[in-house]
Amino acid sequence: MAQPPILSLEGLGLQQGGRWLFGGPQPGQGAEPIDLHIGPRDRLALIGRNGAGKTTLLKIIDDRIEMDRGTRRVKPNMRIVFLEQEPDFSGFGSLMDFALVGDDAPAAHEVESIAGQLGIDMERDAASASGGEKRRAAIARALAQDPDLLLLDEPTNHLDLGAIDWLEDWLKRYKGAFITISHDRTFLKRLTSATLWLDRGTLRRKEVGFGGYEAWEASVYAEEARAAEKLDAKLKLEAHWLERGVTARRKRNQGRLEKLYQMRAARAAMISDTGSAKLKLANDDEFKSKSVIVAEGISKSYDGRAIIKPFTLRIQNGDRIGIVGANGAGKTTLLKMLTGELEPDSGKITHARTLSGVMIDQQRRLLEPDVSVRDILAEGGDWIVVRGQRKHVQAYLKDFLFDPKIVDTKVGILSGGERSRLLLAREFARTANLLVLDEPTNDLDLETLDLLQEVIADFDGTVLIVSHDRDFLDRTVTVTLGLDGTGRVDIVAGGYEDWEEKRRKPVAEKSKTAAPTPAPASAPSAPRSDKLSYKDQRDYEQLLAKIEELETAITKAEAILADPDLFTSDPQRFATITKGLENARSQKDAAEERWLDLAEKVEG
Q: How many CB atoms sit inside 10 A of residue 383's CB?
């Protein structure tokens, strides 16, 4: 390190719930004590699964939690400020009362200055303030204290896109050091220059920003898998699960992204050249028959202000619709109108007769702390019905990145992120053809976000998503509804970046041509590459369909094998299907590897 550290943790060990969370002596539970040195200008991303101890580590750095072993050294007169994920506003009359509490409180005029830039009235009643208002007030208090080291726990939660942009600009100019926990990949990529990875009780550091984290993570797991080849079968299986459960999922997601791009290209061809909401298809009858939500001339106003100006939209079965805009722009109003919860002032909303939905909102219902995971998912039993198919509860837990052994663990033991993931697991099991997600990424770690993207991509029905997570939208949606605060709803094929690109274009440029909007530049549809042979090009164009066929076969086989009586009633059929399932999985893995190799050549 070029300059002396401003804070060091040496030989850190901490017990929690009767076990060593990190730095403990037990094999597999962080056998090596943790050392951490923070430099005066460090920009650190703190990465790890929900429950790994990320927030706990920040609290140790802030001296809120005492270590069971180790030494904490801090540069004299250094100011550390901790922006908590969920600050406690209880007992405060106004947001300003919260900001000015304590011996280290900032000056009121400093708070007001930052609050004005964030667009928050600090005299707002704390009890009735929204999550976004409380978050901005907490940010104003933290930044106004002029910290030397800033600890940020999910700082973008509840912020709209404008506030996130402002915070990013402030941190780029900031002269001190910061450590941030965040699920927002775009935020992390733009700001961090080094990464701390908390994994199975061990803390690793690499002098590379979050943009290089996933490649680093994959290389570590691959090395562990190679090392495990020399050990016993149990360790082989564990390393194999780590490698396949992380890197293979991301490889599959590359194939899903390619299909998403193709869906965007098809959707772009349906949107008129003016960007209006009138969608068109060569066979309009066919298009209408696939429509699940039809909004015709709908609008909404409050107190004389137009929240949603009249527009028309047909949502097809299979669409992934993202809704973006600043807080107060009308995102929730639009979502409620599309789902039928709120009547429009003009126009009408028509839903398909077979439409049935599941709503997962940002105010996720609390789970009883004394109830077990088994009770939440399977009502105390061993089996859960997942969208009509029977599955063992422990196998389903593994699908959602849980250790199956937690099945009888009480909910109160789980971290906040793990409880959010458990709720997602329960809701995604329900039979529905409409999935409504309101800020679904809050409290989720990065691996759970990968899983959530995968579940959405595999969902057979229609998805409506309200989110401020730019990377999540870019990886997930086919159409973006952008609200600029004037009541206008822009409809763009693609994700958040496609909407931003459209907003940046001069109005005059839009009128240069009457041709239909082309597919987004980021959404190629099997481009021809001179780097590929004829056979390579043919494989590149056909493998995605092959992978989809294999996925369907795998799903069917797994559904049959879920029958607990099959082995005893028909052992020959059980053996045949099991062998076929293994073969299909092997073929699918090989096809994915082949397609990814070809995709790299094309992109290169």
A: 16
272, 207: one domain: no
Distance of CA 21 to the CA centre of its chain: 25
Measured CA to CA, the distance from residue 410 to residue 376 in angstroms comes to 10
Type and span of the H or E element at 254: helix 249-268
Spatial neighbors of 40 by CB under 8 A, at least 6 apart, are: 3, 6, 148, 176, 177
Q: What pLDDT digit, counting tens, does each position of 237-266 carry?
A: 444 444 445 555 556 666 777 778 888 888
Whole-structure pTM value: 0.70
Reduce the DSSP state of residue 10 to 3 states and report it. Answer: strand
CB of 69 closer than 8 Å to CB of 125: no
600 contact partners, CB below 8 Å, separation of at least 6: none
> What kind and span of H or E run contains 80?
strand 80-83
**CATH number, domain containing residue 542:** 1.10.287.380
Distance CA 527, CA 524 (A): 6
Helix pair 534-561, 571-603: axis angle to 10 deg: 150
User: pLDDT tens across 532-579, in order?
Assistant: 677 777 777 788 778 778 877 887 887 787 666 777 788 788 778 888
Q: Is 323 helix (H, G, I), strand (E, B) or coil?
A: strand
So what's the pLDDT on residue 491?
A: 92
Question: Do 479 and 596 sit in the same domain of this protein?
Answer: no
99 and 198, same domain (yes or no): yes
Strands 202-206 and 194-199, bridge-based pairing: antiparallel
Q: For the chain, what is the domain count?
A: 4
**Crossing angle between the packed helical segments 416-428 and 446-458, to the nearest 10 degrees:** 10
Domain boundary among 430, 447, 474: 430
**Encoding tokens for residue 180?**
């941030």
529-534 LR contacts (CB < 8 Å, sep 24+): 529/601, 529/602, 531/601, 531/602, 531/604, 532/598, 532/601, 532/602
- Token pair for residue 270? 């349906």
SS3 592: helix
Which of 94, 83, 210 is closest to 156 using CA atoms?
A: 83
**Domain end (from 172, 198, 220):** 220
SS3 content of the chain, % helix, strand, coil (to 5): 45, 20, 35
CB atoms within 10 A of CB 529: 15
User: Does 238 map to a domain?
Assistant: no
List, in order, residues 6 or more apart from 109 with CB less than 8 Å away. none
Is residue 14 assigned to a domain? yes
Q: Which residues are CB-contacts of 234 (< 8 A; sequence separation ≥ 6)?
A: none
Residue-number span of the structural domain to which 375 is assigned? 366-430
Distance in angstroms (rounded) separating the CA atoms of residues 601 and 595: 10
Count how many Cα atoms sit within 13 Å of the Cα of residue 291 in the half-sphere of its side chain: 22
CATH code at position 171: 3.40.50.300
Cβ atoms of 416 and 53 closer than 8 Å: no
Each residue's pLDDT tens digit, 83-138 = 998 889 999 999 999 999 988 889 999 999 999 999 899 999 999 998 889 999 99
Minimal CA–CA distance to 155: which of 65, 46, 37, 42? 46
